[in-house]
TrEMBL record:
It comes from the Bacteria. Gene3D superfamilies: Cytochrome c-like domain. This is Cytochrome c, mono-and diheme variants. The keyword Metal-binding applies. The keyword rRNA processing does not apply. GO terms for molecular function: electron transfer activity; heme binding; metal ion binding. SUPFAM superfamilies: Cytochrome c (SSF46626). It comes from Cribrihabitans marinus. Residues 38-144, 185-291 form the Cytochrome c domain. Pfam families: Cytochrom_C. Keywords: Heme, Iron, Metal-binding.
């Protein structure tokens, strides 16, 4: 019996080590960015579409380009606090390299080799291209530094065990597209905005008990993670607005019924209003091209 127990213990240790190895934090190969120089002007559009300032600007600051962090985002797993991502070398990410940003966006991995919580929507950002990441990095270098220290997340056991996030990533981190075959270049551009940069699915798609996005119910609406109300569906079967209505809403915040956007959508619309009209139209075309709709509606 003792020999059997020792064998079982040894097998358990081997399996645990193998599991930790398979789910270890992954990083991007730095060489892929060696010959790439970012364009800050293009990066500003990436920054705006991705909503970086919406989450990371200081809640008490009127300047939304001061990315000192501090906003609190409640969830069923605890409350997550947006960190400082300003150019400050100690409190922010001023000591990072481009590859560090790429590893964070693509793999949810910090420069110290730790897993980030998926409250940071890297499950969507993982679809970003190298060019978009390099341009974003170039723009972020132009932003002001702020020495405000990042605050810890308010997450209890067992969700505070970051090693478990490797298993979450193994199950749910996928850089494939939800809409496999966009019928036009416009819909393809909309796919980039909806599925990657603007990460619309992070709020408008329901999640399974482990917090993974249910892509089989893509954009069909979801409970509000703050616990109040629901996030509305965007599928053609539920959103009967025309493509023009959708594009206009993303520019102005006004619905076809003369209502106005509220909650976090206010910040989303502030971002989309700064993008070219073609981008808002591309999002509308994408939503109309989802199953049950038509890109020509």
């Amino acid at each position: 019996m003792r020999r059997l127990l020792l064998r079982l213990l040894a097998a358990a240790i081997v399996l645990a080590v193998a599991g930790l190895w398979i789910t270890r934090p992954r990083t991007v190969d730095a060489q892929r960015f060696d010959a790439m120089e970012g364009d800050a002007e293009a990066g500003e559009m990436v920054f705006t579409a991705a909503g970086c300032a919406s989450c990371h600007h200081a809640p008490t600051s009127e300047d939304k380009l001061v990315l000192a962090g501090g906003q609190v985002f409640p969830s069923p797993f605890g409350a997550f606090v947006a960190p400082n991502i300003s150019t400050d070398p100690q409190a922010g990410i001023g000591g990072w390299e481009l590859v560090d940003l790429a590893s964070a966006l693509r793999h949810g991995t910090s420069p110290e080799g730790r897993h980030y919580y998926p409250a940071f929507p890297y499950a969507s950002y993982t679809r970003m291209t190298d060019r978009q990441i390099a341009d974003l990095w170039a723009f972020m270098q132009t932003l002001p530094a702020d020495p405000t220290p990042s605050q810890p997340h308010q997450v209890g056991f067992p969700f505070n065990i970051r090693a478990s996030l490797g298993g979450w990533k193994l199950l749910f981190l996928d850089d494939g597209w939800v809409l496999d075959e966009p019928p036009s270049p416009e819909v393809e551009r909309g796919r980039v905005l909806v599925e990657a940069l603007a990460h619309c699915g992070e709020c408008h798609t329901p999640r399974n008990p482990l917090g993974g996005l249910r892509t089989d119910a893509w954009l069909t609406g979801a409970p509000n993670p703050a616990g109040k109300g629901t996030i509305p569906p965007l599928t053609p079967a539920k959103l009967d607005w025309s493509a023009g209505d959708i594009a206009y809403y993303l520019e102005t915040g006004f619905t076809p019924d003369y209502d106005t956007a509220g909650g976090h959508m206010v910040a989303v619309i502030e971002n989309f209003a700064q993008l070219p009209a073609e981008d808002r139209e591309a999002v509308a075309a994408y939503l109309k091209a989802l199953p049950g709709g038509s890109a020509e509606n």
